[in-house]
Design goal:
It contains no helices and 21 strands. It has 286 residues and is mainly β. A hairpin with a 5-residue loop joins β5 and β6. The two termini are 23 Å apart.
Length: 286
């Protein structure tokens, strides 16, 4: 994990993740902060670990369980609504005001809830509409009023892509899942962030057709930031979005097609949008 200065882009410090089996797939995939400034890191092997203010690594949650498809286990057994067996892929994380963490699992059609203080991940919501043969449920944020959870599905089993929302309750029902926006033309929505304006900014990670989709509070797309001329510049499969508080968004260019041959495509973009971010919950966690 790397820490950069927000204004200068200068590398301040690096943190080596401890405890991974480096012979297996491993990655840090998302971060969140609490009121004390501690960083919670989502790791595909370890679950969630926490970096203290002095940089010490603490285990916060247990690893996310590998669920078998529901059709392969006895009724009542925790399972995945996917039609095939796939490993967990924790992808993005967000806190609510009470300190509960919500984590998207892109391969198991599941949103996990880790209670404030950490421990064992609990199934918060599952639905086959979150499933995919590639990347399903992906970016996640809570709306500024703290009443609904918004998340993307990069591509479902029919190849469709959506921004969905659910009420922020203990156990939402399948019938409470609402389509906020449906994408067409092969768009691949990834990370999301709410502006203070109420608009939702959605990273579009489609290879060679990347950019940022800006959605009004009613879900209608009101603007699209896209490449002109060069299909991989400046946007090259952006994966996540953060506001800098000064009118710009910062985008992580994932570059998962071009970056293999050109590592210089792995960049962080500063894009002025004349908006500031709606505050993320940074809860008090003991």
């Amino acid at each position: 994990m790397l820490l950069y200065h927000a204004e200068t882009g200068r590398l301040v410090r690096s943190f080596a993740t401890k405890g991974e089996d480096l012979s297996q797939e491993h990655a840090n995939s998302g971060v969140a902060l609490d009121r004390f400034g501690r960083v919670y890191v989502l790791n595909t092997q370890l679950g969630i670990y926490r970096l203290t203010l002095n940089g010490r690594q603490e285990q916060y949650s247990k690893p996310f369980p590998d669920l078998k498809p529901c059709g392969q286990v006895a009724p009542g057994t925790p399972c995945s609504p996917t039609p095939f067996d796939a490993p967990p892929l924790p992808n993005d994380i967000v806190f609510d005001a009470a300190g509960n963490a919500y984590v998207t699992d892109s391969l198991q059609a599941t949103i996990w809830k880790v209670p404030s203080g950490g421990g064992t991940p609990q199934i918060w919501f599952q639905d086959v509409r979150l499933a995919s043969t590639n990347i399903g449920v992906n970016g996640i944020r809570i709306n500024p009023s703290g009443t609904r959870v918004f998340f993307t599905v990069s591509g479902d089993l029919q190849g469709r892509a959506f921004v969905y929302s659910l009420p922020l309750v203990d156990r939402p029902s399948a019938s409470s899942l609402r389509v906020f926006h449906e994408y067409t033309n092969g768009d691949v929505p990834d990370g999301i962030a709410f502006g203070a304006s109420g608009r939702l900014y959605v990273a579009i990670a489609t290879p060679f057709a990347s950019g940022v989709s800006i959605l009004a509070p009613n879900g209608r797309e009101v603007a699209r930031l896209a490449n002109t001329g060069n299909p991989i510049f400046p946007y090259d499969s952006p994966a996540n979005i953060a506001f800098d508080g000064e009118g710009s968004i910062l985008l992580t260019n994932h570059a998962f097609v071009t970056g293999v041959n050109d590592p210089g495509q792995f960049t962080i973009l500063d894009v002025f949008v004349n908006d500031v971010g709606a505050p993320l919950e940074m809860p008090v966690i003991r």
